[in-house]
Design a protein that fits this description.
Arc Repressor Mutant, subunit A, mainly alpha, Tetracycline Repressor, domain 2, elongated
């Protein structure tokens, strides 16, 4: 009998490797099953669709970024609001660019996730926005939530540069700088 939890972890690990090396669209459930030495029926019994697997992997990436927040924010101690937010976003861009094959399809396929995955993702995004919210409050600006939503929306606009043109983290940031400047004053 197959241990479902171990198989689930193996499936996620194999899918991450396959998606990162071959691209999401090129990998099927049969490929994932083969990578873990199972028949596709064993993998389907986990009740994970390909979209669910992607959502799980995106949630893992988000969790990794959240775990890194204390380290990241401890390095951002000087500068005005714009400088702090820019430094922070550039570090997020660097991480996301390192995981580009997953991040770009996560943005594209996020529309097909279940409400459960969307709720989990939104909670993680709130964690990722929290340093920005703190810095906005410290700067004495109003509309903290609106500014945070605007800044995070801009983040994804800038990330398109990495996806489409293979832009660096600095170039992604440069792309959104005029609008970011507006939201930080």
């Amino acid at each position: 009998m197959v241990d479902k939890e171990n198989l689930r972890l193996e499936v996620l690990s194999a899918a991450r490797t396959l998606f990162m090396s071959n691209g999401y669209e090129s990998v099927g459930m049969r490929d994932i099953a083969q990578a873990v030495g199972q028949q596709p029926t064993q993998v389907y019994r986990l009740k994970l669709s390909k979209s669910d697997i992607l959502a799980e992997l995106i949630l893992e990436l988000n969790a990794t970024q959240i775990e890194r927040l204390p380290q990241i924010t401890s390095q951002i101690t000087k500068g005005n609001l714009l400088e702090k937010v820019s430094d922070y976003l550039e570090q997020l861009y660097q991480f996301d660019i390192e995981h580009l094959p997953l991040r770009k399809v996560g943005a594209a396929h996020g529309w097909s996730w279940s409400e459960e995955y969307e709720t989990k993702n939104n909670e993680q995004v709130r964690h990722l926005i929290s340093p920005i919210a703190s810095w906005i409050q410290e700067a004495g600006l109003d509309g903290v939530q609106s500014r945070c939503i605007g800044i995070f929306s801009l983040y994804y606009v800038g990330f398109r540069g990495a996806v489409i043109r293979k832009s660096s983290a600095a170039d992604c940031l440069k792309m959104i700088e005029p609008s970011l400047t507006y939201l930080c004053k």
